[in-house]
Amino acid sequence: MSSSQTTPKHVVDMEDLRKVAQSVYARNAELVKLDKMKDEFVALASHELRTPLTIVKNYLWLALHEKDEPLGSNTTKYIDIAAETVDRLMFLVEDILTISRIENGRVTLAKEDVDMVPFVRGLVESYQVKAQEKQIRLSFESSVDSQLVTFDKNRFTQVVINILGNALKFTPVGGAVRVSVDIEDGAICMVRVSDTGPGVASDKQASLFTKFGKIDDSYANLPNVNGTGLGLYISKEIMHLHEGTLTAESVWGKGSTFIASLPITK
Ligand SMILES: Nc1ncnc2c1ncn2[C@@H]1O[C@H](COP(=O)(O)OP(=O)(O)OP(=O)(O)O)[C@@H](O)[C@H]1O
Ligand SMILES: [Mg+2]
Question: pTM higher than 0.70 for the full model?
Answer without folding.
Answer: yes
